[in-house]
Amino acid sequence: MSQQDTQAAPLDRALLDRQRRRHWRGPEAPPAFLAESVAQELTERLSLVQRRFDIGMDLAGHRGELAGHIAAGGQVEWLVRVERDPLWLEGSALAIVADEEALPLADESVDLVLSNLSLHLTNDTPGTFVQIRRALKPDGLFLAAMLGGETLTELRQSLIVAEAEIAGGAAPRVLPFVELRDAGALLQRTGFALPVIDQDRLTVRYDTMFELMADLRAMGMANILTARSRRPATRKLFLRAAEIYAERFADADGRIRATFDVVYLSGWRPHDSQQKPLRPGSAKASLAEALTRK
Hints:
By secondary structure, this protein is an alpha/beta fold. The protein has helices at residues 3-8, 13-22, 33-47, 65-73, 125-135, 153-167, 180-189, 209-218, 235-249, 287-292; strands at residues 53-59, 76-83, 95-97, 110-116, 136-148, 193-206, 256-268. The chain is built from ten helices and seven strands. α3 (33-47) packs parallel to α4. The longest helix is centred in the N-terminal third of the chain and has 15 residues, at 33-47. The radius of gyration is 21 Å and the shape is elongated.
């Protein structure tokens, strides 16, 4: 792969799919705590919108935690699941096999698009946002959650320090994650109205770094960077990284912390009925007047 190709596609999404298939069933089935927690939060946020939606889309929800909660809530008449692999769609009555980066949807065809922890795993996230906006009907809602901020910062730091000690340099081993302000700017830049964005931090504790890494592999979140080193990592590297992790990021009981920052986003396809921001200079009174009134 050329340097230009690597820059254009920083994530090896085919590898992501292979990892997920490997852990789809059996004793190493992916843990659901993260997707389930975020699915519950997204469902709660949708319930605050005083509206029923005729056609909704669950975009790349993988194991379908969000789709299950939305179906139970009864706020969406028809919920269509969209996944790259038909394996993830087993048992789904309404489903489309498609890549979220190339949605086969007509313009203005759905009322609601939901996404649970998948958009940080796209290579062309702005392009995906644009496609979502186009697929929404006017005044349609986009509601999503993606990992961002300081997610897995403890693991990232421990691996970098350990590899620098052992090899004199460090290869990228943990995905980059979006910053809160950049996610908000992305919503605005891709044409969504009334954007709202916030972040919630989940801290998960493990006995050792190896239990954390096992969960990440099962969730398909092992290293899928195209710029990753092709040399097999040594046992010495991971043992040293686990020592550093325990030294720097353990609680008093010896268990280590893993940070997951969840960025929540919502935006609407523009419509004439939506509230418009005031034009500059159109305020009835100035801030200076308000502060000096008796």
